[in-house]
Amino acid sequence: MIAGLDIGTTKIAALIADVTDDMRLDIIGVGVAPSKGLRKGTVVDIEQATESIVHAVEQAEHMAGRRIESVFVGVTGEHIRSMNSKGMIAVTSPTREISREDVERVMESSRTVVLTPDREIIHAIPRGYVVDGQNGIRHPEGMSGSRLEVETHIIHGSSSFLQNVTKCVSRAQLQVNALVVEPIATAEAVLTEAERSLGVALADIGGGTTDVAVFTDGEIYYTGVIPVGGNHVTNDISMGLRTPPEESERIKLQYACALREMVGDDEVVPHRPMGSNEERKVPARVLAEIVEPRMRELFELIYEEIKKSGTAGMLPGGLVLSGGGSLMRGVADLAREVTDMPVRVGKPMNVGGLADKVDSPVFATGVGLLLYGLKH
Predict the structure, then answer these.
(1) What is the pLDDT, as a whole number, of residue 42?
(2) What is the enclosing helix (H) or strand (E) of 365?
């Protein structure tokens, strides 16, 4: 049994799965609770965040009919940074055969990057090994050589942030199997092997943040977090239509469209402004004029991250969108227009059991945490 905990700004999702004999996952429990005590992926109130985690986990346990003791936990936030590092060692065995210890030593040498005392490494992921100058080696163990090199993708974050997340999970009476940076998890659920090999970007649009990851040659190459998400659209609707936050969220989920040109002239949006009990109607084009600039800005920021990675124009796999923000009408069309890349919306793949319960981009990270747990 494996459990995943997606701690987001808008919602906390707990997922439980059984591992089948052929090493596949069957979803047996799903729980969702509104996120309290979090802002843009960061814990701002430990008591409230713990309470939200407990609610989500209890729902999932009730559905599964089982108790869980440990979870793979998804983390995000502006504090997440990444870099690519290299390590090199001499192979010292008399036979010059590369051992598991050699692989561990070269990985350790690639992790010796200079970080400030308030930061720590969350992931060190090997992108590829080089044996005596020969590139593109995935599994060097057992090969012959005198020099072993590795290129590693290192993701690091704020120590205090990571400690606070761990503290919330511990207070919910759960052990942390591993902290997993959310785009790493999401990629497990929504990207195909072919896309990773060709080169692909992933953008997971959450409530408070958008996670970006770039894959080349089948491996992770770049990770970034943008402090803009679906909640910014909700705030814009509140300002534009003078509606309370809950009403603005409902309007966004039911009526928002990311492209003005896709909205019909006869479409209207019923809404209740702040302090009024009367329902009013506004043309849907007015709503689209509020929503489109923010979504356009978000895709420009996503494309900036892709350019920052140095892979713009070199990703035939295109851009895959996930997260709640990817459900908005017209979102893929706007993303294509802004980035000039092929775009699709990614739903979780490779799970059975109650798969219909998680058949939405909203659960991509949660399912990805389970798949990550299965692998590791």
Answers:
(1) 80
(2) helix 364-375
Give percent helix, percent strand, percent coil of the chain, each to the nearest 5: 40, 35, 30
Looking at the structure, tell me whether residues 202 and 334 fall in a common domain: yes
Distances (CA, A) of 186 to 74, 103, 150: 9, 27, 25
Residue range of the domain that includes 277: 195-345
Is residue 258 a part of any domain in this protein?
yes
pLDDT digits (tens, 9 = 90+) for 138-189: 999 999 999 999 999 999 999 999 999 999 999 999 999 999 999 999 999 9
Q: Where are the beta strands (DSSP E) in the chain?
A: 2-7, 11-19, 25-34, 38-39, 42-43, 70-75, 81-90, 119-131, 134-137, 147-158, 175-181, 200-205, 210-216, 219-226, 268-271, 280-283, 319-322, 343-345, 351-353
SS3 60: helix
Burial class (CB in 10 A: 0-12, 13-18, 19+), 48: middle
* 240 part of a folded domain: yes
Give the E-state strand segments of 246-301 in sequence order.
268-271, 280-283
What CATH number did the domain enclosing 143 receive?
Answer: 3.30.1490.110
Residues 335 and 199 in one domain: yes
Looking at residue 360, its amino acid is: S
- Give the chain's length: 376
Does the residue 375 lie in any domain? no
Q: Note whether residue 130 is domain-resident.
A: yes
Q: What is the DSSP string of 339-358?
A: H-S-EEE----SEEESGGGG
> HEC states along 149-186?
EEEEEEEEEEHHHHHHHHHHHHHCCCEEEEEEEHHHHH
Please tell me the predicted confidence (pLDDT) of residue 92: 86
Nearest to 172 by CA among 64, 285, 67, 39: 67
Asked whether the CA dihedral 97, 100, 105, 108 is positive or negative, the reply is positive
**Rounded Cα distance, 190 and 211, in Å:** 14
Chain centroid, CA 228 distance in Å: 14
Same domain for 138 and 202, yes or no, is: no
